[in-house]
Amino acid sequence: MQAGRRYTFFQTANWTRKYIFWFVVVDSIPVVLYQVFQVEWLRIPWQPLSLIGIAVAFYLGFKNNSSYERTWEARKIWGGIVNTSRAFTVMVREYINNEAAVERQDETALQELRRQVVHRHVAWLRAMTIELRKYQPWEHNASNDKVGRKILGTEYRPERFDELKPYLSAEDHAYVLAKGNRSSHLLSLQTRQLMVLRQQGLIEHFRHLQLQTQITEMYTLQGKSERIKNFPFPRQYATINYFFVVLFLILLPFGMVDVFTEHGGGGWWVWLAIPFSVVSSWVFWMMEMIGEYSENPFEGLYNDVPITDIAISIEIDIRQMLEETDLPQRTPPMGDLKVVV
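Above: the chain's sequence. Below: its structure in token form.
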């Protein structure tokens, strides 16, 4: 996501430069036909166009509110992952002990058990960030989007699951790679190990239930993330909104010809219809694009929820709880847009 104060006007204009070019071309055609070739019937009264514009504005507002809600819900979900991760790690650190042990372990062995569980949790975080970046057919995948993902390092590649190796045993890593939903099966491995520790008495029964409650909450948060990722903003709303905006932008310059002809009585005034049509078209199209790019908060582009940065922050936090010092560094915002991913 963009982590600076705001996009500059140049960055915003550059994002929409090809559309601005088309607006200049399309909005010039009615004016040239009217003024140069005297095709006077091209004037459309502004009143019916204003009705269409009001309807389009209301529809854009609905779409943008709905799209923003998807992005904000995604951020709240990952806020929940932050809190659950901290609580789970503190419990692991304190609950795995010799109080009810069938066979007592020395502190070094206990610390290694705690490390295994916490590192597997880190692997779960990293696996989720990889899986949530899989491309879906309704997400943006134009050539500049592909380039953007490469620049940001968010493109999905199966070999990225090798990043889990430092956090898992060879057996666990091979087991996870053989599954479809890898992050889900990492939580399954957590449950299995916690049950073994419970049977060994290294986790007391009531405390084991508390830890399992945290894992259940992780399943819930993962499922919520997958719901946003795998279920698009309803296509009927996105499609109709797109058609309505395009229709209004096509008709807009014809109405502008009428407005400036009446205002100036003809002459050079009518040429002002071109810049005003371009600006108006750009405003409506920008609102459409903002809503469209807010629909998919995990697609790995500039306006996403920065799940990789959040995952690294969680990793640093929870591994410090185990007094580990060999920690990853948070990636500073990159590029002119100051993007975090």
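The CA atoms of residues 97 and 202 lie 5 Å apart.
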